[in-house]
């Protein structure tokens, strides 16, 4: 076996050691997760990249690597950098013969650099590779830290690609992995666009004995047990650090080979063999023997940043002294970790291995601290004089700087003796100066007496003015003006969309805590879950099995059936049987996807006009809060949603059909309710896509709020016929592997991971909402007329201003505001139960802001009145105590801002002019 010291190992290198990180990274990437591997240098990151890339390619995937060192960072412009990234991906995926990059780049001249990279992904990569999975490995990412411009948008694009998966499934085929010596905090400043909070961190640890037993084979030792014992001793020295482990294995093998060649080989104890080699060939004269570079790389990284070096060395010194140092995100500790010198051990920092501990020891730290000391020259001269030369001791500013520098550091005893000697010298000089100070004391006493009198006068007039000001109540005349101003600000903020997400979240919370209405008896869901797929043995479900399931359902005489499964292509065997079922089932409705990427409906059902839409409307955060009832225009045929087709068929049997209202053709009378189409700015929405005929979705509940059976139950006759008879039946997938899942208001939970709702359950909710509204008059979620919402926000802002004016006590005012906010929430919730979504967040924001603004305005005005009264009282007292009053006025000025100082001067001038 040949050991490799430094550089990336080839994918088939026999000395490559598989660690836990190999399987973690491979499995995470196969799942489509964004991964990042951040660690110190020479820990095997690049070798892990090469190995993982090879495994993925063996599976038939398409991979490329973008090495940031190849793109460069010195004297490079944003244009050159982004073009370099695109060029590396272009060449890495072998697009040279397919796409003329120069021409394509020139055609995109009117858009930003980031948009060019985004379009390259969507228009080139995903198009040129229409079916395969693409993996982009980004190595040496820390190279961007040297750029003189921000590339936050680059990371935002990675996050965008992952977010797009909820809208465009094509993006599920591209996956990113990042490698380097950095932290997420170093790489991106804008936390709102970082992809690292949605990615998976792969922890790369050192070798364990079980992982690297294969390395024992190349040590040139005859006995396998002896070889393993030697390897165990190597790991004791290296702590499993990949570079050092490979290097010392190489040194042991070379030494053994040399001894055999000279005929001097004899077997010694494993600890002696390894210890002698490490001491002589690694630790002794380590700087000259450090080839390839490793130890010097660690040293240079540690000493690179003078701004944090003292603190870093102090922390490392405490680690060497076995003090408990808790790992956190401080810059010094992060830099120690990235250098590779230390690692985490149960939330604390420890030196990574014995070799580092021996080389970067307390003596080495002392040498570096000596270089850093601001007083090194003086201290060394003092030591050379036998600690007798007092002229070398520190005084004044130099002493204070030394004391400040020494704080939070573990220094050598000689440092503390030198600083203590300097302090003692200052103490002796102070004692000698005491007599001189006595002479000055009498002068100071006179000045002190005047100052005390000034302080007394100033304190008395302040108390008097403060009592007077407490009787004054200001602000009543400002209530209306502040309320209107705050309301305008809130409405402007709302119109920009800044409050949209918070209002959505509040709507979600209301939907979650709404009392359950029980199981809807009119709807039955037939689900297809993972156990069903395992029993059936394939997906899509064969036509024969689906035909059998539909025939059983027909025998139970349901009102109608909604097939929420795409069936645009035959899935043999059984295609003819399924076609016959379609032709003979007039109450069966199939689906098609019409918006975005289209999926055709079953051909037979399309000919019979028994097709509904399967499209759902996603909000900006990926949740379904609206129901798309229909899509159509003057040029295209009107297409109803699957749930609408089912609900209207059910209602038609009850003698109910939708009718346009005379005054508005878009408003539809449907039984006991009126359907009003959603508009772009309804409720908490701002410029939403209101295409088609949409309504706000008032959920009946989750799947547990509907009768639900599995398709296996149906096929095995385990469903009582009476539970299906004369009901609407929906058939659809709830399996995670099929990915017909959506985020809904029920997704966010206080505890646990977010949950998703299957498309068939969402359709059941839409059917339930339409039926309940038409038959029972259950309110469909409505919103106020926009001017009413404005008045509501103005009213709440006025309440906040009145509460702030009414209660001068801050504690009482805060309590009243909190109570009022709670009251608003209760009112909004009760109104929501009646079917109205009113603006709660803007109302709360207006209430709190008005209270704060009024409080600030009145406080400033009262401060001016109080200050004016203080000046008047001081000037009135100046006849009896002229000197003390002058000092008191100066004291007053010193405690005030520059604006108030000018106000005091102006007040004095006005009062003097009148007198």
Number of strands: 23
What is the overall number of helices? 35
Helix residue percentage: 40-55%
Q: State the domain count.
A: 5
Give the DSSP E fraction (strand runs of 2 or more residues): 5-15%
**Largest sheet entry:** 6 strands, parallel
Helix and strand content put the structural class at alpha/beta
The separation of the N and C termini measures 104 Å
The overall average pLDDT, rounded, is 86
Overall spatial form:
flat
Low-confidence stretches: none
Spatial order of the strands forming the largest sheet: 11-10-9-19-8-18
Taking all Cα atoms into account, the compactness measure Rg is 39 Å
Description of the molecule:
With 915 residues, this protein is of the alpha/beta class. The protein has 5 domains: 20-201, 3-Layer(aba) Sandwich (Rossmann fold), CATH 3.40.50; 213-262, no CATH class; 297-429, no CATH class; 444-513 and 784-915, no CATH class; 514-782, no CATH class. Helix content is 52%, strand content 11%. Helix 9 (224-238) crosses helix 11. The longest helix is centred in the last third of the chain and has 38 residues, at 840-877. The chain is flat and about 115 Å long. The chain starts with 19 loop residues before the first helix and ends with a helix.
Secondary structure: elements and pairs:
Blueprint (H helix, E strand, L loop, with lengths): L19 H11 L4 E4 L6 H14 L3 E6 H4 L6 H15 L8 H7 L5 H16 L5 E6 L12 H12 L10 E7 L3 H4 L12 E2 L22 H15 L3 H21 L7 H14 L2 H4 L5 H9 L2 H15 L10 H9 L2 E4 L2 E4 L2 H6 L2 H11 L3 H9 L11 H11 L6 H20 L1 H37 L8 H17 L4 H14 L6 E9 L1 H7 L6 H13 L4 E5 L10 H9 L4 E5 L10 H6 L2 E3 L12 E6 L7 E2 L1 H12 L5 E3 L2 E7 L2 E3 L17 E4 L9 E5 H5 L12 E6 L7 E2 L14 E2 H18 L5 E2 L2 H21 L3 H24 L2 E2 L2 H38 L4 H13 L3 H17 L1
Parallel strand pairs: 1-4, 1-5, 2-3, 3-4, 8-18, 8-19, 9-10, 9-19, 10-11, 22-23
Antiparallel strand pairs: 6-7, 12-13, 12-17, 14-15, 15-16, 20-21
Helix pairs in contact: 1-2, 4-6, 9-10, 9-11, 10-11, 14-15, 14-17, 21-33, 21-34, 22-31, 22-33, 25-26, 28-30, 31-32, 31-33, 32-33, 33-34, 33-35
